[in-house]
């Protein structure tokens, strides 16, 4: 924050992590496109070095140089065969894309080589032929399997492989009734699959029946460099696309149409699941759905831009829904910026309908457009307690409930050393060892939180929110270094930050979710026609049945230059 690039005082250097020559790129900073929270610069000709990782060292002219939390790694540009380089920095990794095979004629575009089986339009099941061709291409080092315009039928899963892309140069429609069971996904990416995906493919899922299992669309766990571009998934009453625990997932200009009627599918899920994935680029997509939303729980380095999230609230009876739109829980380094639109249909806007739902209790009306929230067992992993003793690298504390997890942090929330946080290197039931030393060592006056980290280093900027009960909501989760900047909300509720304190029932142990270093600036909230969405901006600590706090629930919260226009009765959602 507070870079102030237009003043001409910013200095910028790249320092190799492994040692070597520092590169001064101050003169290559674009001061017009950089902002208080974002740097844009050009790399110099002839450097820095490809496949080298650098620290970013910044000065803004008002204080000493600081090192950015994140390093950057320089990749070779390669060939941008699919036209995604504007958004996806690893576009050059698909270096096999010039080698193509026609799925119908079996012919290669360059060599005298043919596929083992031909694919045909019409009613015949193409699953076996497509799978045989994918495995053949993978064994030859990779290629693009192209489909001429037409309708193709499948009744069994398509198993993807590394270095193979399915692509339609024209209108390609694949329709399927893939059977239920463990392998019920139309497109399956085995764990470890890399440099694979779909481009210009329309998949029409045949799920139109009263079966909670439905027909699956896509499953990929633990995959790398997966691309979906310009695809359409008509999911009807089927389950979500799942690309979770992956690395470098690019979703560019796709449309996911779910349109589930909740009455017929009580166990349905939202259109997309990305849980646990890192380096996610989602640009220009349209998500059309009825229940749940886009799940990105535990993701990191996720960037959302120019997407539309459309909730079809009028489909079906919305009893006991989970209607969040974009869900981030215990995620870090993520951005929702650049003309994303979060909206709903007119049925959800209707004031009369909202009153009925509130009176009958048939709908919880969650509807947060962006939410980060700990629930259930995860919330139990965030415990506050007193310090017994400490050294620069250790902290001893009262006995605590500590489930197994590899991502614990310690934060000093009261007393000596307030405001510091450190990652845990190792731990026992009575103490922890830190990866880095304290700047100020805590003592018996200090209280700490030890547990999994919540949402950190996020930016929600320049988005439009239309219609809905609630807007961006950071709730029941520890949060550090967040910014909600320059968004426009119309009949869309509030910007709500809710830190939380509650007793565990055990002596000197509390559930504690603090929110520190937050910026909420230049947002416009307007109740243009609907007074039932609770229009406000605020941070309010919830101390459930506690007579006092045990630490700083709120620290470094900045709220300025916002505009709120509410109407009577301004009912809080």
UniProtKB/TrEMBL annotation:
SUPFAM superfamilies: Pectin lyase-like. Residues 118-171 form the Rhamnogalacturonase A/B/Epimerase-like pectate lyase domain. InterPro entries: Pectin_lyas_fold, Pectin_lyase_fold/virulence, RHGA/B-epi-like_pectate_lyase. Transmembrane segments: none annotated. This is Rhamnogalacturonase A/B/Epimerase-like pectate lyase domain-containing protein. It comes from Hymenobacter crusticola.
